[in-house]
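STRUCTURE REQUEST FORM
Protein name: ArsR family transcriptional regulator
Source organism: Chitinophaga barathri
Requested output: structure tokens
Priority: standard
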Amino acid sequence: MKQDIFQAISDPTRRAILTLIAIQALTPNAMAEKFDMTRQAVSKHIKVLHECGLIKPEQSGREIYYHFNPKKMQEFDNWLAQFRKSWETQFNQLDVLLSTIKEQKK
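Status: completed
Returned output:
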């Protein structure tokens, strides 16, 4: 079953894994060494990240290295952009209002 990207990034461990492999591809064993958890627990997190497309496996000999998939994150960022414009407009309006109130108190 395909995982939802929101579910995948909702977990702090999965976000930490993404941060690690954004810098360099890692094997599940290498990831497990970075966390206080078993390789099996890391594998469950990897499965979720892989199913939603945030990471991609690459076989190298007997090892599987997981790479960050920036294209999938770009899709997510593009979706967020529509909301970013809205909240930036609202924050700018709030800044203007607060500046006006501050000036009126002087």
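Reviewer notes: Residues 70-105 form the longest helix (36 residues). Residues 70-105 form one domain.
Form closed.
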